[in-house]
Design a protein that fits this description.
single chain; about 70 residues; mainly beta; 3-stranded antiparallel β-sheet; about 10% strand; globular
């Protein structure tokens, strides 16, 4: 996104509208990322909380401005 200088991502689905998933080896994970929901022009419903926010939104920004010290590489 040129306005925010952040990448935009969204979940991938198969033809049957099933989530496109895969099992990956733990060595393939480099570090965690901070996803920020891309909000609509409407108000966010009060029922949306940290436990269901990833299921409630369909597009996200990858926060590249998060402090790299917030996540450790193990």
């Amino acid at each position: 996104d040129e306005g925010t200088s952040m990448w935009m991502v969204h979940p991938s689905f198969t033809w049957g509208e099933w989530p496109n998933t895969a099992v990956i080896h733990i060595d393939a994970i480099f570090h965690a990322v901070h996803l920020i929901p891309i909000y609509d022009r409407n108000f966010v419903l009060p029922e949306i909380g940290p436990h269901n926010s990833y299921d409630s939104f369909h597009h996200f920004y990858v926060n590249r401005f998060a402090d790299h010290h917030a996540f450790k590489i193990m």
